[in-house]
Specification:
This protein is mainly beta. It has helices at residues 2-15, 65-69, and strands at 39-40, 45-50, 61-64, 73-82, 92-102, 111-122, 130-134, 140-148, 157-165, 180-181, 191-196, 201-210, 217-228.
Length: 229
């Protein structure tokens, strides 16, 4: 029964034309979580920024809140460090993710207080000061915006902020009309690239690859799962 349900979920994703990466661990399908009020989908969709540069890339480095820590965990925080002072370019040189648990059995979907911080990547050198981003209470992460070098697609990530949305008044769906975002982590200038979850999805993880020589992020993708009342 578990195998049949998994196969059906994957078929539904492909039939709907969702962007899926079958090799990605965050796309794993499992039995639905038990919840009286909210269910986070057992399948994930992704949105990706890619610089197009492939030299010296690391393996995929990631955080998967939902898979690694439980059904109610979402990626609500990102902490970053700047490049070394001696580097002529401005970019994100270190990143950690913050996974908060939400109470799926409560219609108001509050945080439970359970929290995990996970290192994602670090360049060979970076400054010690940490810039912290976190989704405010009673809001849920729905994507990221990146600052990249140049005005086009860019070749590396300079800055980041989190996009989020609250529930609607009846606590039955995300109120995307009221979506907002954190400040930029550092404040570096550059072109903006948006990574967005589909409607009524929350961000449960991210994965990236960085240049192991220059220390710059070359590709980054977010992982989203549908939030179902």
């Amino acid at each position: 029964m578990r195998i049949a349900r998994s196969a059906f979920a994957l078929f539904a994703l492909f039939a709907a034309g969702c962007a899926v990466d079958a090799t990605d661990p965050d796309l794993a399908v499992d039995a639905p979580p038990l919840s009286e009020n909210w269910i986070v989908s057992t399948s994930a969709t992704i949105d990706t920024w890619n610089s197009g540069l492939n030299a010296n890339l690391s393996d995929w480095e990631s955080v998967h809140c939902n898979l690694d820590y439980g059904d109610g965990y979402m990626l609500t925080g990102v902490n970053v460090n700047q490049e070394n002072l001696s580097d002529p370019d401005a970019f994100l040189a270190r990143m950690t993710g913050e996974c908060w648990e939400f109470d799926l059995a409560d219609s108001a979907l509050p945080k439970t207080g359970s929290f995990v911080s996970i290192p994602i990547f670090a360049a060979t050198g970076f400054r010690s000061g940490v810039f912290q981003l976190s989704v405010t209470d009673d809001n849920y992460p729905t994507g990221l915006q990146l600052k990249v070098n140049g005005s086009g697609n860019g070749t590396y990530v300079k800055d980041v902020r989190i996009v989020y949305a609250p529930l609607n008044a009846t606590e039955t769906a995300l109120n995307l009309a009221a979506a907002s975002h954190t400040s930029w982590a550092i404040g570096y200038a550059g072109g903006t690239q948006s990574l967005s979850c589909p409607a009524q999805h929350v961000m449960t993880g991210l994965a990236l690859r960085h240049d192991e020589i220059e220390g710059k992020i070359r590709t980054l993708k977010i992982h989203c799962r549908e939030l179902q009342p």
